[in-house]
Amino acid sequence: MASFDLSPYTIIITTFTLLLLQKLISVISKPTIQSLVWNIYSSSPLLAQSKSIKQYAAKQHEIRTLTHEQRLISAQDEYARWTKLNRKLDKLKVELQELNESLGSEKARVNSLTNSLIWISTVLPIWVMRFLFRKTQLFYIRAGILPHYLEWWLALPFSQTGAIGLTCWMFAVNYVLSEIFFVVSFPFQNKVAKPEKPIKGEGQDEN
Using one digit for the tens of pLDDT, what is the confidence trace for 91-140? Predict the structure, then answer.
């Protein structure tokens, strides 16, 4: 265990960073991250190796080029040229859709790899640290500030009474981060209509 010794400060900062990353990923959502990674993968000739992926990236680039060119001309002044570009774009979009459907297995493999990288970079280190540093005392509570039974509870499951270990620290960080993310995201939530008192229909008897 000596080779794994870290200062309490390093453990505190590392676990806080990992838990913050986990919260960010949960807010962004894995499907969004997978979509972003797939877009980068499929549009990069350095990463994409299969023929279909390269064709997909090439057609994406061609669509962007033609779209930009079409925006630079007027549909009224250069109708024939604008229409020709529009037909090319429609054809490319159909071909891109067909390629996208045929790349299902490739996309599933990239999504699986993305999930694995997320797990290895955020979840696995937390479990490793919880095992290696489960008995490390991160800091101590000044005697007499809290009741003895509360000090005992905060020290669970491996710390001595009066000390704060990794389990308690992670619980506190998770709680605080959850509250912060809730406060920050609350203004952007969908508004709920104010409930209105139902209007009694005519002829209804009041009780």
Answer: 998 888 888 777 888 888 889 999 999 999 999 999 998 888 888 888 88
In total, the chain counts a number of residues equal to 207
91 with 124: CB under 8 angstroms?
Answer: no
Following DSSP, what letter does each residue of 84-149 receive, concatenated? HHHHHHHHHHHHHHHHHHHTHHHHHHHHHHHHHHHIIIIIHHHHHHHHHTTT---EEPPTTSS-HH
| 164: helix, strand or coil | strand
Cα–Cα distance measured from residue 172 to residue 93, given in angstroms and rounded to the nearest whole number: 50
- Give the Cα separation of 78 and 105 in Å (integer): 43
Question: What span, in angstroms and rounded, lies between the C-alpha atoms of 204 and 106?
Answer: 64
- CB contact at 8 A, 180 and 26: no
Other beta carbons less than 10 A from residue 171's beta carbon: 11
CB 184 within 8 A of CB 174: no
Place of tokens 């229909």: 201
What would the two tokens of residue 88 be? 């090319």
**CATH match of 29-133 with 1.10.287.660:** yes
Neighbouring C-beta atoms of residue 33, cutoff 10 Å: 17
| Predicted pLDDT at 197 | 72
Burial class (CB in 10 A: 0-12, 13-18, 19+), 15: buried
